[in-house]
């Protein structure tokens, strides 16, 4: 009897594993033709100047419009794309769409594009970026590239030339999810980046945690000393916004202002500012038109 039960449990586990392998394979196969079928879309989330109440840039975020499955989020396909060698194609598609969309934005607004380490270590990445710029006509300083700390890590070795090529092109380089990778300080010492994006896990609890507040404030000061711009990710409450402004954090991004949307032209809700400041009517919405 015990043996039967054991076996039954084993089979349940087996079915579960089987199901996961099937789903994974299914995703992988569908993903292979996603670019060719035009299923990769680019959505946008504004990056706001917390002091001036203006939009300075918009971040391009990949979405996969999968037939019969709806909109698939990057968390479900970027890692797979990296593993099976599809990230270069998907990344170039997003980069191209983002550069083109940015040319229609007013006021020299920039577009910020995520770059996976696997794209970055390729010898031709500099050429890919150059092509996206010349095809769209976007000015290089209107393109920001967000590198994760592991991509920057690669730049220490094999991708040093790519890093220099991008510097020479005049695009702006950001470290994404700052603080979550290994040896963040080594990156800052070795690499001449323009911008740090403080990961949202540090921002989330600043209202309740003195420790998190100290960390964020420390990063803001560090960025300031190094003459880097700093963006706080994942701002959801007016309380977080107020604290960040007090700390002198210049830029921010988060659901408080806008969730990612399919059009590049930002529609930003500045109610968060208004609720916490003295002036102006309480339900104003600022729209920056393309
Ligand atoms: P990320 O670059 O750090 O982007 C921020 C993520 O946080 C986005 O999720 C965004 O929708 C979400 N977010 C923004 N504000 C808030 C907020 O206030 N609260 C919360 N809870 N979340 C917020 P998304 O679009 O699902 O993207 C997830 C990650 O996938 C990105 O993190 C990025 O690492 C990766 N990714 C997205 N698009 C691309 C791409 O085109 N290429 C590459 N290589 N990676 C991409
Ligand atoms: Mg990013
Ligand atoms: Mg990030
Ligand atoms: Mg992140």
TrEMBL record:
Domain EAL: residue ranges: 24-274
Signal peptide (residue range): none
Highest taxon of the lineage: Bacteria
Descriptive protein name: Bifunctional diguanylate cyclase/phosphodiesterase
Source organism per UniProt: Cryobacterium tagatosivorans
């Amino acid at each position: 009897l015990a043996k039967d039960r054991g076996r039954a449990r084993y089979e349940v586990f087996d079915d579960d594993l089987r199901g996961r392998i099937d789903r994974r394979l299914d995703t992988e196969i569908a993903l292979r033709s996603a670019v060719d079928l035009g299923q990769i879309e680019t959505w946008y989330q504004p990056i706001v100047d917390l002091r001036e109440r203006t939009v300075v840039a918009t971040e391009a975020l990949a979405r996969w419009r999968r037939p019969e499955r709806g909109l698939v989020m990057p968390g479900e396909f970027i890692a797979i794309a990296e593993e099976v060698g599809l990230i270069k194609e998907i990344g170039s598609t997003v980069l191209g769409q983002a550069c083109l969309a940015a040319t229609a934005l007013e006021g020299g607004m920039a577009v910020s594009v995520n770059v996976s380490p696997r794209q970055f270590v390729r010898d031709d990445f500099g050429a890919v970026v150059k092509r996206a710029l010349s095809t769209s006509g976007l000015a290089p300083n209107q393109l920001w590239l967000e590198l994760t700390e592991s991509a920057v890590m690669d730049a220490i070795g094999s991708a040093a030339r790519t890093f220099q090529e991008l510097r020479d092109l005049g695009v702006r380089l950001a470290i994404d999810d700052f603080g979550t990778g290994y040896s963040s300080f080594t990156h800052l010492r070795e690499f001449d980046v323009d911008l740090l994006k403080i990961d949202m896990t540090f921002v989330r609890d600043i209202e309740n945690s003195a420790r998190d507040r100290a960390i964020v404030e420390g990063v803001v000061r560090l960025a300031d000393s190094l003459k880097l711009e700093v963006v706080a990710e994942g701002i959801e409450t007016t309380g977080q916004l107020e604290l960040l402004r007090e700390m002198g954090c210049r830029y921010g991004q988060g659901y408080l202002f806008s969730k990612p949307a399919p059009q590049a032209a930002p529609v930003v809700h500045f109610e968060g500012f208004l609720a916490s400041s003295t002036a102006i009517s309480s339900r104003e919405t600022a729209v920056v038109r393309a």
